[in-house]
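Technical note accompanying the year-one report. For the benefit of new consortium partners, we illustrate the data format agreed upon in the data management plan: each record pairs a sequence with a structure-token string. No post-processing was applied to the example shown here.
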Amino acid sequence: MGRSKARVVLVEREKKIYCGDNWLEVDIYPAYHQPEGRGRRARVKESCPAQRNLNDKNARKYFIRLVHTNFTSADYRLDLTYNRESCPETPEKLARNARNFLRRLGDLRKKLGLPPLKYVLINAYGISAKTGRMVRPHHHLIVNAGLSVSEIMGLWKRRGKNGRTYGFVSYTPLQFDPDTGIAGLANYLTEQPAHKKRWTSSTNLCKPESSTNDSRYRKRQVERMIAGEAYKAYGSDCRNLINYDKWCAKYPGYRLVEYSPEYVDGMGAWYLSMRFRKNEDTLPQKEGKLKRGCAGISASVTKTGRCNQAEEFRDKDAS
């Protein structure tokens, strides 16, 4: 007689995504699995979504996780614009200009002895309803610190020593909200859904790590905890949640900062997404450093606008 197949069961899966040392995301959702495969699994690297459009929900979530894993408030956000004479006519030319700019950034950092360039790039533009042409092309960048404002502005231009500048460069320190982190920036970038927002990143970024557990929660347990919140308006402050203390107790050392339940009609179950922030009194390091398996960079800004950096390499297993 042939071997009988194991019965597939519906479980409540807990997925924890570690975004550097300071951020933890937890998803609890129904999933089909075989009984012998239940339990806790080892950490794996999160795969990048094939769809890299920030108007896509999953791509936006991965974008936030990637930034939380690799960048800190010591790094910078750049906004690159075009004047009327320099506007590219096609998305291909828009992307080419960004690649050339990033290549110049990398070459200058290498020349000055700075750590390799790390970046996340967003190419954004709109489409005219009248002409069908590309309008208001621009770029958003998150880059690691090291170069001064004047050095960066001098690279946003056409080829050649006397090449004309493309447009303006906005150079601001990367701001992390104490509760939502970089999520506010990602939401701001998606406020205009008519605009196309394709993003890419350097290959030297560390991927968020995740692990799953199919035996920690039961369906009724999750339903009771979510249903209890329906009787209390908590707004955007998770501390007003009825089960706030219970959720924090399940993930020691973290505080709950974002709570988003969604009912899935097709499966008759809840999909719960939560974001946790490391407690200030248990932070393993200062905001200007990274640890989990990456080359951390501590930076201090001098009067000239340049950042003094010290690169610290740590073994992945040490964390």
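Partners are asked to follow this layout when depositing records. Residues 9-47+211-282 form one domain.
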